[in-house]
Amino acid sequence: MEFSTIPVDASPSHSHSLIPPVGNLPAELLIEMFAFCAAEDPLAPLTLGTVCRFWKKVVDESPRVWQVVILDDKRYISASQSQAKLWINRSAPLQLDVKLHVEDANNILPLLAPFLPVLHRWRRLTISGAREESIRLSDTFSRLDTLNDLSISVYDDEDATDACRSTFVQYSPLWPNRMVMNIWLTKLPHAESMIPLQFTSLSITEQSPLTTQPDPTAVLGLLKSCPQLESFTLSGWMEAENYRYHPLPVVSLPRLHTLHLRRTTLTRAILSHIDAPVLSKLYLANLNISHRISPEYLEPGDSEDEAHDYSQSPWSDQATGMGLRNLIARCNPPLKALEMDYSDMRTKDFIYVFDHLTELEDFLIVASDMSNTVIRLLKPYDEAADPCLSPAPSLTVRLPHLRNLELYNCHRISGDAIVETLMQRVKYTDRFAPEDTMEEVIIADCEQFNYQHQDMLSKEMGLRFKMD
User: Fold this and answer.
1) pLDDT (0 to 100) of residue 12
2) What number is the average pLDDT over the span 324-340?
3) What is the pLDDT of residues 302-330, one digit of tens each?
4) Residues near 286 by beta carbon (within 8 Å), at least 6 away in sequence
5) Torsion angle defined by CA atoms of residues 113, 115, 116 and 121, in that order, rounded to the nearest 10 degrees
6) Alpha-helix residue ranges (DSSP H) falling in 338-394
7) What is d(CA 365, CA 64) in angstroms, rounded to the nearest whole number?
8) Which of 16, 62, 258, 409 could disulfide-link to 281, CB 3.0 to 4.6 Å?
9) SS3 category, 2
10) Measured CA angle at 258 (ends 353, 366), to 5 deg
11) 35-55 tens-digit pLDDT
12) Any idea which of 66-75, 92-101, 107-116, 182-191 has the lowest mean pLDDT?
């Protein structure tokens, strides 16, 4: 970059010249002066550029002047985001110091979002106002190619300042070069305030019982802003939903392969409104509740379960089952692992799921009220066939690739139904589909499964069968 100075004649005849003495200053000194001003005044570079053409040239062509980015949440978030993008472009390739002053800590993520794609240029982050933090990032981020993990904790207002917090921390001692970004909120940001994020892993955790549960629209909006997402975890508290039914957007997550839903009543809303065509692992935990879940849906499949099987959690069973059915109907994901820990479905939902998950290899279920009808779905079936006939009869096997089955605390299934089902299935698949036969079966703490049943399965399956 080449600049010239503007000469000023200091003779008495020109003592009233319109050109100020500062015009004689070399560009290098002007740059340092402008950078000093920019570190104190958020919009100083823009203001200085309006003085004259020469100053504008100095400002526009000097990355040093744009190195400090000062943002607050007094203006519209979109305006601050536009400012951040301009400063990022003008300061390249130099490092950045980012200063945030926020009255509402919920605005930290939207304000930091524009800087995430250039994290290798971050030198220091300073947050003041609703949160206080100052951290030097250049040493940490110099080892990273990208920042993949975002963890969001949702608190009640009165709990929001209880914890000592760092925005960027090491993911694990075993992963010294992997960092996670932590954000603490009292409510999720509006979709309108977010710009696309490049995170591949997102976790949202409600850290305390909230007065009002997050509207699923906010969760889906955040998912929409993370189109590269590969893993998503939502953990909440078992409070009744307080929102009224309204149409929700469907979010496309073309790379999502792992989904965890724990202790939340948003199960149906999430599963029913994501398009995840490569989802291969689904983990559902602690979703069973005994009270009614609102809002009430009226979709095909919401009719009463024709099996009339007993359940301690009929409303959450329906919500989980309908959510999973809607997910399968929308994108038919190639699920290979399904775990249901204190999470249940109606019999009609098990039938639908077992009929459609043709790629499932691992199925684990804990504390289910599933009946004999459900476990018997895993038998080879054909009314006119005997599974021991040769040559191979034309039988159908649900979950044809199922290799690992684990049943824990399933007290309503009889031991006879378990033995009957597994012995028929293993005899058939061992003989006619050995590549897809059972590799491991674990049955633990199921009240109606006794030592007699254990001996029968052990003789048929050998070491493939375990009681614990």
Assistant:
1) 46
2) 97
3) 777 676 676 788 888 999 999 999 999 99
4) 238, 262, 263, 341, 342, 343
5) -170
6) 347-356, 372-375
7) 59
8) 258
9) coil
10) 55
11) 999 999 989 999 989 988 888
12) 182-191
Q: Which residues pair with 134 in a beta bridge?
A: 126
Backbone φ and ψ of 316, nearest 5°: -70, -30
Predicted TM-score of the model (pTM) = 0.87
- End-to-end CA separation in angstroms for the chain: 73
Spatial separation of the C-alpha atoms in residues 455 and 438, rounded to whole Å: 17
The residues pairing with 442 across neighbouring beta strands, listed in sequence order, are 406, 466
Residue owning tokens 């254990």: 454
Q: What is the residue type of 320?
A: T
Do the Cβ atoms of 116 and 85 come closer than 8 Å? no
Q: Which pLDDT score, from 0 to 100, does residue 245 have?
A: 59
* 366: β partners: 341, 408
Contact (CB, 8 A) for 170 and 143: no
Higher pLDDT, 126 or 21: 126
Confidence class of residue 425 from pLDDT cuts 50, 70 and 90? very high
What is the average pLDDT across 176-182?
A: 82
**What is the rounded CA–CA span in Å between residue 152 and residue 225?**
14
pLDDT of residue 99: 95
When mean pLDDT is compared across 119-128, 203-212, 230-239, 275-284, the lowest value belongs to 203-212
440/424 Cα distance (integer angstroms) = 15
Token output for 383: 């009314």
Strand, coil or helix: what is 462? helix
Q: Give buried/exposed letters for 48-63 (b at 16+ CB in 10 A, else e).
A: bbeeeeebeebbeebb
Which is more confidently placed, 80 or 11?
Answer: 80
Q: Side chain identity at 169, as an amino acid letter?
A: V
The H-assigned helical ranges of 306-410 are: 314-331, 347-356, 372-375
What pLDDT, on a 0 to 100 scale, did the predictor assign at position 394?
Answer: 78
Which H or E run includes 389? none
Sorted by sequence, the CB contacts under 8 Å of residue 364 that are 6+ apart come out as 338, 339, 340, 341, 404, 405, 406, 408
Rounded to whole angstroms, the Cα distance separating 376 from 378 reads: 5
Tell me how far CA of residue 42 lies from CA of 93, 95, 263, 356, 408, in angstroms. 20, 17, 43, 57, 60
